[in-house]
Amino acid sequence: MDQFFDTFLNWTYIWEVFPDLLRTGLLNTLILSVAAAIIGTLLGMVLAVMGLSTKRWLRWPARVYTDIFRGLPAILTILVIGQGVGLLARSVVGNNPYPLGIAALSLIAAAYIGEIFRAGIQSVDKGQLEASRALGMSYPKAMLLVVIPQGVRRVLPALVNQFIALVKDSTLVYFLGFLTSQRELFRIGQDLAANTGNLSPLVAAGAVYLVITVPLTHLVNYIDKRLQTGRKVTAESNEMLAGGTV
């Protein structure tokens, strides 16, 4: 038992690594995740709209993109973009792999978020679009102001879950060889673990990840519960109206 605690819960190494985890690792993990989430959300919405289009020249590229980036392992995508595309983008980003890491995570996230948005939009009753069109709205305006907001609201839990997955996928960008100041949580914990031969720094990094992901998981459950309650109240109100009791 003493050996177990010394290997995984050696407080000397944990306290040694914590300042770097909080000052450098946490900051870079959040920058990578939030930046990729924002870009991925924007690209995902475009993919969702393209995927729902009646025009094949819009629908098929979105379908192919989604199949490719959802089908490839995340680490393969990150390496191809970071090392392959990086050679072509060197005139823009130089030798800095940080933007390429964000780009790779964004492209991966977009494929999943696009499918989430598409499912949410398709779940909205078609009568909403027809009613909006009957009121004189154009198709793009009806989608933007009526259908898409309802669809996004319905998939909020799935979007938060995708952000949690993005936080965990950010550990893979260390393969691109970030600078010391660019290391995320996992890389900092791994570096000290490798130098000391002790796994306590990785346990400390895992604890910081849990501080991020566990509250978000409970947020997902809270949002889902609120949405289910809202849908239940709406359904009951519609039944009362249909029965003439209101």
UniProtKB/TrEMBL annotation:
<protein>
    <submittedName>
        <fullName>Amino acid ABC transporter permease</fullName>
    </submittedName>
</protein>
<feature type="transmembrane region" description="Helical">
    <location>
        <begin position="199"/>
        <end position="223"/>
    </location>
</feature>
<dbReference type="InterPro" id="IPR035906">
    <property type="entry name" value="MetI-like_sf"/>
</dbReference>
<keyword id="KW-0472">Membrane</keyword>
<feature type="transmembrane region" description="Helical">
    <location>
        <begin position="98"/>
        <end position="117"/>
    </location>
</feature>
<keyword id="KW-0029">Amino-acid transport</keyword>
<keyword id="KW-1133">Transmembrane helix</keyword>
<feature type="transmembrane region" description="Helical">
    <location>
        <begin position="158"/>
        <end position="179"/>
    </location>
</feature>
<dbReference type="InterPro" id="IPR000515">
    <property type="entry name" value="MetI-like"/>
</dbReference>
<dbReference type="InterPro" id="IPR043429">
    <property type="entry name" value="ArtM/GltK/GlnP/TcyL/YhdX-like"/>
</dbReference>
<feature type="transmembrane region" description="Helical">
    <location>
        <begin position="30"/>
        <end position="52"/>
    </location>
</feature>
<dbReference type="Pfam" id="PF00528">
    <property type="entry name" value="BPD_transp_1"/>
</dbReference>
<dbReference type="InterPro" id="IPR010065">
    <property type="entry name" value="AA_ABC_transptr_permease_3TM"/>
</dbReference>
<keyword id="KW-1003">Cell membrane</keyword>
<feature type="domain" description="ABC transmembrane type-1">
    <location>
        <begin position="26"/>
        <end position="220"/>
    </location>
</feature>
<keyword id="KW-0813">Transport</keyword>
<comment type="similarity">
    <text>Belongs to the binding-protein-dependent transport system permease family. HisMQ subfamily.</text>
</comment>
<keyword id="KW-0812">Transmembrane</keyword>
<feature type="transmembrane region" description="Helical">
    <location>
        <begin position="72"/>
        <end position="92"/>
    </location>
</feature>
